[in-house]
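Z., the sequence and structure:
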Amino acid sequence: MSEEGAPSGRPARRGRALEVWIGIAIGVLLHIPAVLYVLRAPILMTADGLGWSLLPTAVAVALSLTLLFFRRTRRVGAGVMLAASAIWLVFLGPCIGLLFMFSTFG
């Protein structure tokens, strides 16, 4: 029986949350051009414009999948993927939905 608070013999885990936050920052920085494009000219959003606003997400997903393959960069890749998902859920998804709801497409 071990006493409460006795060392377990395993080394203390080094905190690696900073790597995830760095990945989140990289993912957010990759999406700034798309957010600015959508805010700058929503009237000019056509099928071609929608493709240009999706490009940063494609780059972020490709970057995060590449980073997830390597053990040293896995947490940064997870952060980039978290940021890409959060941007879509919080900002780009509803904005594009409203754009198509009030437009004369289709």
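The chain has three helices and no strands. The helical segments are 17-40, 47-68, 74-102.

Let me know what you think.
H.
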